[in-house]
UniProtKB/TrEMBL annotation:
EC number, UniProt record: 1.6.2.4
UniProt keyword Transmembrane, yes or no: yes
UniProt-recorded name of the protein: NADPH--hemoprotein reductase
Xref: InterPro entries: FAD-bd_FR_type, Flavdoxin-like, Flavodoxin/NO_synth, Flavoprot_Pyr_Nucl_cyt_Rdtase, Flavoprotein-like_sf, FNR_nucleotide-bd, OxRdtase_FAD/NAD-bd, Riboflavin_synthase-like_b-brl
UniProt KW keywords: Electron transport, Flavoprotein, FMN, Membrane, Transmembrane, Transmembrane helix, Transport
Record has Membrane as a keyword: yes
Residue stretches spanning the membrane: 12-29
Organism for this UniProt entry: Duganella margarita
Pfam family, one: NAD_binding_1
Sample GO molecular function, one term: flavin adenine dinucleotide binding
Residue ranges occupied by any Flavodoxin-like domain in the UniProt entry: 51-188
Domain FAD-binding FR-type span(s) in chain numbering: 202-314
Length: 454
């Protein structure tokens, strides 16, 4: 290195050093502030024992409703500790007078990832709770056999421990406004106020469908399309990698469909990856059919962005990342890889599965470019039908268990995006075999095992 006394060069070097330090410091400060706020909330609740608002969320709905619940109590002058269910221990449950549980169900009756430790640690034991008064808001989807399964199991366990219900369990099917309104009504009665914050979701905005390209022409699988949209207002809203959009299709505007965002604000557009769904009678999915087949380029799409805090990078922004998925799940992982590349973070390992390399290698040129530029340290693509014996991403993962353990020991976080059936369960089993079920649950509780599966 050649040293110089040139003041302009010294200032430039100093400025670059300070800038880099600030980039490294920001995630630490955010995490520190979050921990300090949680500690203050817990201390306040301990000083004035009574209410806890706790949530278990997979995609963020229960989280948002819990924040609105806590805000309503605060408006009524009732201090309450707001926390994730995973943060509660047996002593918290035994000390509290009132707890409001807002919990979603993952898949067929399971607890959300971050609540798996709570379910295994406490809901399998006997814990006398005669002093506790509680209520449960259970979120679910009636398309699944075990509708609101975790919320129901939690309610039954609490009753078995002697806890007393403040009012009957409220079950919410696909974010039903009527059911959420019932929860609000009961909450207002408990808090003794009819004045509550606005719980309504943000309005949909008008966006233009600017580009649509099929990525897998000739594939044996269903068609997959890359879409790009821009706001008609011209003002691009902010979002983070991992977030979602909700699209209101004209044929069913009351039930918005959610898609992972495959881009970052620096791209200037929202990118989506949409697989055309075809029913047994040959008809297409309401949203996927409209977006990929019926809507013309330039047509207006009613869309709104939704934060997906359980799948954002946030405190994991400086960690190595293991990104795992299949099919259209590359969308959510692509957003993270774009964010990492922009930040100069190259310690990324992508394991991804599809049908055939010749037709289903989505975003291949982009992935190759990131590898070449050092932004994708390791890439494992698994194509299930390119050999006589079908192989899947979980098979490749199981073969590299030792490497997974090494990455986790180095502080890596794991992000999974793709299909719930088959892939997500298989990957979870492979990770549990490599790290131990308790170890995997601990990663989930620490926010280092995050999933966006559907």
């Amino acid at each position: 290195m050649i040293w110089t006394n040139d003041p302009s060069r010294l200032m430039m070097v100093a400025g670059m050093s300070v800038g880099y330090a600030l980039v490294c410091l920001a995630p630490y400060l955010r995490t520190r502030r979050k921990r300090q706020a949680a500690a203050r909330a817990k201390a306040e609740a301990a000083a004035s024992p009574g209410w806890i608002v706790t949530y278990a969320s997979q995609t963020g709905n229960a989280d948002e409703l819990a924040q609105q619940t806590a805000a309503t109590l605060k408006l009524a002058g009732i201090p309450a500790r707001l926390c994730e269910l995973s943060e509660l221990d047996a002593q918290d449950l035994q000390d509290a007078e009132r707890i409001l549980f807002l919990v979603s169900t993952y898949g067929e009756g399971d607890a959300p990832d971050a609540a798996a430790g709570f379910a295994g640690r406490l809901m399998t034991t006997s814990l006398p709770l005669p002093q506790l008064h509680y209520a449960v808001l259970a979120l679910g989807d009636s398309a699944y056999t075990q509708f609101c399964g975790f919320g129901r199991a939690l309610d039954h366990w609490l009753q078995a421990q002697g806890a007393q219900t403040l009012f009957p369990r409220v079950e919410v099917n696909r974010s039903s406004e009527q059911a959420i309104g019932q929860w609000r009504q009961q909450l207002s009665h408990l808090a003794g106020t009819s004045d509550a914050p606005d719980w309504s979701a943000p309005a949909f905005d008008a966006w233009r469908l600017s580009e649509r390209v099929q990525l897998n022409a000739g594939s044996a699988g269903a068609p997959v399309y890359h879409l790009e949209l821009e706001p008609l207002s011209g003002a691009l809203p902010d979002w983070q990698s991992g977030d979602l959009v909700q699209v209101a299709a004209p044929a069913d505007p009351a039930r918005a469909r959610e898609y992972s965002i495959a881009s970052i604000p620096a791209d200037g557009r929202v990118h989506l990856l949409v697989r055309l769904h075809t029913h047994e009678d040959g008809s297409h999915g309401v949203a996927s059919g409209w977006l990929t087949q019926q809507a013309s380029l330039g047509e207006t799409v009613q869309l709104r962005l939704r934060p997906h805090r359980r799948f954002r990078l946030e405190g994991n922004a400086e960690r190595p990342l293991i990104l795992i998925g299949n099919g259209s799940g590359i969308a959510g992982l692509r957003g993270h890889l774009k964010a990492r590349a922009l930040a100069g973070q190259g310690r990324n390992w992508l394991l991804f599965g599809e049908r055939n390399a010749a037709y289903d290698y989505h975003y291949r040129a982009e992935l190759d470019g990131w590898q070449r530029d050092g932004m994708l340290g390791k890439l494992d693509m698994v194509f299930s039908r390119d050999q006589a014996e079908r192989r899947y991403v979980q098979d490749r993962l199981a073969e590299q268990a030792e490497l997974v353990r090494n990455w986790i020991a180095e502080g890596a976080a794991i992000y999974i995006c793709g299909s719930l059936d088959g892939m997500a369960a298989g990957v979870d089993a492979a990770l549990a075999a490599a790290l131990g079920r308790d170890g995997l649950d601990a990663l989930a509780a620490a926010g280092r095992y995050r999933r966006d599966v559907y």
